[in-house]
Design brief:
The chain has 337 residues and is α+β, with helices and mostly antiparallel strands. It has 15 helices and eleven strands. The protein starts with a helix and ends with a helix. This is Aldolase.
């Protein structure tokens, strides 16, 4: 059964931190007048282990979308306590059978810069049918923007949508085409991490004991904290895309050295969820939810792939406020692992 194969692929992608972080991203497929979409807060990685997809009345959804109503509440076709993905409208407006929305590290390294669209065009040209949508709040606003983008150029049969400061949507009518498209984009947008960056790290003595915290054992994290330019990015441009803000807040918890970190630890009694300590490491709270660990690693992985000659474009204060005060995101955070 093709749907079983798609669930297996969703689980595979969901286990790849370069594409999906925690409960981020979502997937869907269409069966007649039913849209099967991931439930909010559920993990794609669990697609084969539990029922993470909900059946939605696609005919009802489409009828409202075609009259310009993108604020419609999706009708779930079974009794459940779960809610459909915040991005359900996004999946409904894409005409193809299979739709996959991810937050790929390789793509985000372009999408958080002002030159992102032009650089993607240089890489891809017309090898695939793609379009680029400026940042919109996830949900109805984004769904509407995607709908307009693909209907303004119907002759192109858009199958790839790049979302500024957010991620990527890919679609296809056959599963093997979707898989091939995802692999193609990953390859074409790939940027290697320089050997100099990975090797340029000093070894510092662990001067203090931060009870309840441990250093993240990750080579990318170590490269990040020992690179002055990447640390500067975290200071200035912490809020780069929605999930990062939702799970880690609007400002970085960053210290210049171990001594400053220790002073904060003694004064406040804790370091919050994490602490980035320059030229030392990334301290994370013991038993920190995997969602937040994944988001930290994602941010670091994006930063070490950024072309530093480009101009970084973070989310605005208004964008951040919309995300942090949104009940739908609060719900998603509350049920995520």
């Amino acid at each position: 059964m093709v749907q079983a194969e798609y669930k297996e692929y969703c689980a595979t992608v969901g286990h790849d931190p370069l594409h999906i972080q925690g409960a981020g991203g979502n997937a869907s497929w269409k069966e007649g007048d039913t849209l099967w979409v991931k439930a909010s807060g559920k993990w794609l990685a669990d697609a084969t282990k539990e029922e993470i997809f909900l059946p939605i009345d696609l005919a009802e959804l489409t009828s409202h979308i075609e009259t310009g109503n993108f604020e419609i509440k999706p009708v779930i076709l079974k009794k459940t306590e779960l809610r459909p993905s915040i991005e359900t409208i996004l999946h409904a407006v894409m005409p193809q059978k299979y739709v996959l929305h991810t937050h790929p590290v390789q793509a985000l390294a372009y999408l958080v810069t002002k030159e992102g669209k032009a650089d993607i065009a240089t890489r891809l040209g017309d090898k695939v049918a793609w379009t680029y949508v400026p940042y919109r709040k996830p949900g109805p606003d984004l769904g509407k923007a995607i709908y307009k983008a693909i209907h303004q150029q119907p002759q192109k049969n858009i199958t790839v949508v790049f979302l500024e400061n957010h991620g990527v949507v890919i679609s296809a009518n056959k599963l093997d085409k979707l898989i091939a498209l995802n692999e193609f984009l990953t390859k074409e947008l790939s940027r290697d991490i320089s050997a100099d960056l990975l090797n340029a790290r000093s070894i510092q003595e662990n001067k203090h004991n931060f009870s309840g915290y441990h250093l993240l054992d990750n080579p990318i994290a170590m490269a990040f904290v020992h690179d002055e330019k990447r640390i500067e990015i975290a200071k200035k441009y912490w809020a780069l895309y929605p999930d990062h803000v939702v799970f880690l807040g609007e400002k970085a918890r960053l210290f210049l050295n171990q001594d400053d970190c220790k002073k904060a630890f003694e004064h406040e009694g804790n370091l919050g969820d994490y602490a980035i300590v320059e030229n030392y490491g990334l301290l994370i709270k013991d038993k920190l939810p995997q969602n937040k660990i994944d988001m930290l690693i994602c941010y670091i992985s994006v930063c070490v792939r950024l072309d530093l000659s480009k101009h970084i474009s973070p989310l605005s204060i208004e964008n951040i406020g919309e995300l942090l005060n949104w009940d739908a995101e609060k719900y998603r955070s509350s049920i995520s692992k």
